[in-house]
Amino acid sequence: MSNFTKTYHALGTEIKLTVFQEGQVPALDKAYELIQYCEDILTVNRTESEIMSINHASGKGAVSVSKISYDLVKAAVKVSQKNQGFNAAIGPLVKLWHIGFSDAEVPTEKEISNRLRLTNPGRIMLDDSNRSVYLLDEGMELDLGGIAKGYIADAIKKLWYESGVEQGIIDLGGNVLLVGQSIHEDGLWTVGVQSPFDTRSDYLGIVEIPDYSVVTSGIYERFLNKQGHSYHHIMDPKTGYPVKTDLIGVTVISPKSIDGEIWSSLGFYNNYEGTLKLLTDNAIGLVFVYKDRTIRLTDNLKDKFKLTDTSFKII
């Protein structure tokens, strides 16, 4: 079967969109238009967007936004207020460290302490009737990060189904979402799980799954080296420092991409044992990869995951 792929750049990454019928090629550009629209309203990497309007109004008043922005913020706040590690109000800390950018520096204890006061998700007020968001304290900032990418991937899948696309691959760079059944007799897809020690084309193993999402987060892509110390970009909302962990990568297999983004964060914050205590949905599976090249799998992936790189070991 032929495939038709287009490569785009958006969301700070390389995007590859694939369909398997020539007549469905226009769906690729439609998806890219949706990505651009969502990025315009959801980004915090520009001075203007709907999310930045909420941030600019922190401590001053509520801001009404589009349904897309409101639904995403509401989902992020709901998870954040459980205080399990994921925190949509982490913006002030992310901006303070700015890891991955040329001006990244290690902040002082006082700077970190001051910013931590501005990261309480309980200080975010939502109003469903007006679709408005109010950050109660001046200086608070939303940073939706990966959860926005997950939301966008799910939105593309919905768009494609409505457009008659029966098979496709949505690859938003570290976030892959499958559409429909594969060409194999069992309808399952074979997807590589990213090796955190190599480039994006190298895998440590493969999974056979239905039209699910595969999301990988790692501490290996963005970091800051200062005075003999290496600081990665995944912040601990309790300490204000990068999360202390022996993990180097977490991959989540889930029906929805937004859930993959949430659980990849929760996996880093809570490690294997802590994540198992939180996980109640058997449709969501996780692959934990450690710095010593050991791997731990949730039980629901043990018959779906095949190790292909023998330098790793499943425990």
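The above is record 1. Record 2 follows with the same two-line structure.
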Amino acid sequence: MSTTPATTPDLDDPATDPFDVARAAADHIAEVTGVSGHDVALVLGSGWGGAAELVGDVVAEFPTHEIPGFARPSVDGHVATTRSIRVERPDGSTRNALVIGGRTHLYEGRGVRRVAHGVRTAAATGCTTAVLTNGCGGLHMAWRPGQPVLIKDHLNLTATSPLEGATFVDLTEVYSARLRDLARTVDPELPEGVYAQFPGPHYETPAEVRMAGVLGADLVGMSTTLEAIAARHAGMEVMGISLVTNLAAGVSPHPLSHAEVLEAGQAAGPRISDLLARIVREI
């Protein structure tokens, strides 16, 4: 049973300020973890779930849906546990990481506020950095399943935004060049590319993939861009990392399947989890 307080504002009510719900969620996290504030947030997509155990020492963990404003995940393979983790940095100092499991996707039909709620909650806990990960389709034959790719920019093809009203945010550098450079100190061979988010839940057609490629995309998926916009609006520095779980439609000669995505994520899991943990310790 959810422990969400009955007095929590309704995130779905247009009259509700979504940042009020984020603050209520942050208060709940502080209460259940005993940690007054967090520094870096991780949103773990398909294939990345194992990183949580490698980042540092788990201080507390609890079902994500018990946090105000969150719902149970509706997709197989997505972790529904949120953790507070103490991270020891190379210089001996420590930071607190909030690992949010069970992100809400736009295709679930719960509204864009729910999609953005995770990063807004992280910002309300004090996080100044957001690390957003996903599993995606790749447009380049050289990037085989299991290849991690830094996101340098994105195409938001969802026809929506997490921002409401006359809210203008500069997106010249959505994904921090500083953090990408830092990631390459851990793995100098990490490539980077442009990620295009489609609304889903159906996979893209070959024509849509070709269109995305003409527009400049290297990767296609169904998450991340709306969260990145919301994180930048909240003042956070953003790192995005995709795991190529399959070649995109028309690039691959084979039909696409969610089982293929999960299988590729599981196969690459130990390697990419170790990579992400090392990057987070450097942030």
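The CA atoms of residues 148 and 243 lie 4 Å apart.
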